């Protein structure tokens, strides 16, 4: 009988196979065990990749590792933003391993950005300190400890960069695009924004318009006697910017420089600014704005500078408690011309609280003539023409030959100080610390303010009272300006003229228009017991409006100034007039006009009258009711005399 061992052989084979599998599994477990032991000897943090000692990690070190992870996330945000400049991702740069370069930078390829006729130029955009995080932060090492405030600041700066890019893109497109985005107004022919087309074309940069706010938007193009580099440098310097637009800007400052530019130029410059913008009338509140200003070169000789409000991003102590104006992407595109001029296209776009504006000025502001592009271009052209004349070696034929070059400079510097102080007194900006008075014996539309003048050699010491009002007159702005600046007609309205005509003793031209000048006037004495008096007067006019500012001055002091002496010690208090058209389409002739949709209206001018008077030579003195009444009567009498001389109805 043959025994069958095949079942036992099969079972033995199965057992061997199972033993082999168990042996392999045992080897795997042994290898895993060895790996775990090695890992326990050298633990690694899963968040940051650095080494860790189990059970011995301090709270501070844990915070640093968490911060390191957050910074890497923030680096990704910055790289994504910078990638918008490059037009390609830059993650490969961020992930590269190696020692940090002495001056890390990214190539910035600036495209047309909607300016189709412009070529592309390459520059460099520095990161690092400008944007809060450098390229070296991407390396797999733990960065230095940073506070939460510093981290929040880097996030804020990256948000500013993103806002600046969007604002620049919008500005350039608005400067380039014509109809249907921009249409010509029926009154005056100015370019006005088609708001429906704007909403279809652009996504709001700073959120929706606040309730109760209205919109103004204008565009203007003009030729200016300045090259693009000089103009850009002026716009990016807050002090030079205010000097270029002295009647528009009451005060300005740079609050933070995020990027100073690249390659020694202003290309890529990004900064935070604060400004007080004004229309010269007590009936129009000063616009206080906090905004980003971003400068970018688009091609050789072609630059753009854009402003945009930041109130939706940052609530800081420098922001006004109540924002009465928001600056949407606004600014200019500047292109060099072969003749040394520049072609400047200016865009102004803002939202503001109209309820704070007096009814008589609302048409002016809603049309953009108060703060709009036309006024910026007109002011820029006049001021650049003035600078060109003053820098010229040739003396204009209308100038007084006896005044030396040093005397001209001193006299112009004194006139500029006089006019700046006049504007500060009309609008109650923060240039001076004014206290508003609410007196019962003052007319409704007259604003009276006081301040103390102490230790200022350019002003007489004591209590200074300022009074200003604005009235409508059915007279053209040009006719009103010519009347007020004519020294031969001054006795018809000025009580300082001693009842007779004045004589022009000196004349300095500031523009091609005869109305742009500084003059020294002398009033004749009525009798032998009276001494003659000198009056310094500055007049200026452009397409947006005109000014006549004057102040009595000391005769010996003016002799020093005309010989080139220091004008800072000449004490004066200014008075004068500001004139603007009363609204769009104003021919100012007293004619009845209509836009076809509403009733006839008589067009004319808006005249602001303002006086600053020393009511007491002691700074600690109390203001009397009689002083307030005297100044109120002076304004009322002056307005009535002007109306009578121009044969205006009451």
Automatic annotation (TrEMBL):
A GO term from the CC aspect: nucleus
Keywords assigned by UniProt, alphabetized: Coiled coil, DNA-binding, Homeobox, Nucleus, Transcription, Transcription regulation
Subcellular locations according to the entry: Nucleus
PROSITE patterns tied to this protein: START
Signal peptide: none
Domain START as annotated: residue spans: 153-389
Primary location class: nucleus
Top-level taxon in the UniProt lineage: Eukaryota
Keyword Cell division: no
Gene Ontology molecular-function annotations: DNA binding; lipid binding
Entry's family note: Belongs to the HD-ZIP homeobox family. Class IV subfamily.
Protein name as catalogued: START domain-containing protein
Protein source organism: Carya illinoinensis
């Amino acid at each position: 009988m043959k025994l069958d061992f095949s079942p036992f052989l099969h079972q033995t084979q199965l057992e061997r196979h199972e033993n082999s599998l168990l042996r392999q599994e045992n080897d795997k477990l042994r290898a895993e065990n060895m790996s775990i032991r090695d890992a326990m000897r050298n633990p690694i943090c899963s968040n940051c990749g650095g080494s860790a000692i189990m059970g011995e990690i301090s709270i501070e070190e844990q915070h640093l590792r968490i911060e390191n992870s957050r910074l890497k996330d923030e680096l990704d945000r910055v790289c994504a933003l910078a990638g918008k400049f490059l037009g390609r991702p830059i993650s490969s740069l961020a992930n590269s391993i190696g020692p940090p370069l002495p001056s890390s930078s990214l190539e910035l390829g600036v495209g047309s950005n909607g300016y189709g006729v412009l070529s592309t130029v390459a520059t460099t955009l520095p990161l690092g300190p400008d944007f809060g995080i450098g390229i070296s932060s991407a390396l797999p090492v733990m960065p230095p400890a940073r506070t939460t405030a510093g981290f929040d600041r880097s996030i804020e700066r990256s948000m500013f960069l993103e806002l600046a890019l969007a604002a620049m893109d919008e500005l350039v497109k608005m400067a380039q695009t014509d109809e249907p985005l921009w249409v010509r107004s029926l009154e005056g022919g100015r370019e006005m924004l088609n708001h429906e087309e704007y909403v279809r074309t652009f996504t709001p940069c700073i959120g929706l318009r606040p309730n109760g706010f209205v919109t103004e938007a204008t565009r203007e193009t003009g030729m200016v006697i300045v090259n693009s580099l000089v103009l850009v440098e002026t716009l990016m310097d807050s002090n030079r910017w205010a000097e270029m637009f002295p009647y528009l800007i009451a005060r300005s400052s740079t609050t933070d420089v995020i990027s100073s530019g690249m390659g020694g130029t202003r290309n890529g410059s990004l900064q935070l600014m604060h400004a007080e913008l004004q229309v010269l009338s007590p009936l129009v509140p000063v616009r206080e704005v906090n905004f980003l200003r971003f400068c970018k070169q688009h091609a050789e000789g072609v630059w753009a500078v854009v402003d945009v409000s930041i109130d939706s991003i940052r609530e800081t102590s420098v922001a006004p408690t109540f924002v009465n104006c928001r600056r949407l992407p606004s600014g200019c595109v500047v292109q060099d011309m072969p003749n040394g001029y520049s072609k400047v296209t200016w865009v102004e776009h803002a939202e503001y609280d109209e309820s704070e504006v007096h009814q008589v000025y609302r048409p002016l502001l809603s049309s953009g003539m108060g703060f709009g592009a036309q006024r910026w271009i007109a002011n820029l052209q006049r001021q650049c023409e003035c600078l060109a004349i003053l820098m010229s070696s040739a003396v204009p034929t209308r100038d007084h030959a006896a005044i030396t070059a040093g005397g001209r400079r001193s006299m112009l510097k004194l006139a500029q100080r006089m006019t700046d102080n006049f504007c500060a007194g009309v609008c109650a900006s923060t240039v001076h610390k004014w206290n508003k008075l609410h007196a019962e014996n003052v007319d409704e539309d007259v604003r009276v303010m006081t301040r103390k003048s102490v230790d200022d050699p350019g002003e007489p010491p004591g209590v200074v009272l300022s009074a200003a009002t604005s009235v409508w007159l059915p007279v053209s702005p040009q006719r009103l300006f010519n009347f007020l600046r004519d020294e031969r007609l001054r006795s018809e309205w000025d009580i300082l003229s001693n009842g007779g005509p004045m004589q022009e003793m000196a004349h300095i031209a500031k523009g091609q228009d005869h109305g742009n000048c500084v003059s020294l006037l002398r009033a004749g004495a009525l009798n032998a017991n009276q001494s003659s008096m000198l009056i310094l007067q500055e007049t200026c006019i452009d397409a947006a409006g005109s000014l006549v500012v004057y102040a009595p001055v000391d005769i010996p002091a003016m002799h020093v100034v005309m010989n080139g002496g220091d004008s800072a010690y000449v004490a004066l208090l200014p008075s004068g007039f500001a004139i603007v058209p009363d609204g769009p389409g104003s021919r100012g002739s007293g004619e009845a006009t209509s836009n076809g949709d509403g009733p006839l209206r008589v067009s004319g001018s808006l005249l602001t009258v303002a006086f600053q008077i020393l009511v007491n030579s002691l700074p600690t003195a109390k203001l009397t009711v009689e002083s307030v009444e005297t100044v109120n009567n002076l304004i009322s009498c002056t307005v009535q005399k002007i109306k009578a001389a121009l044969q205006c109805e009451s």
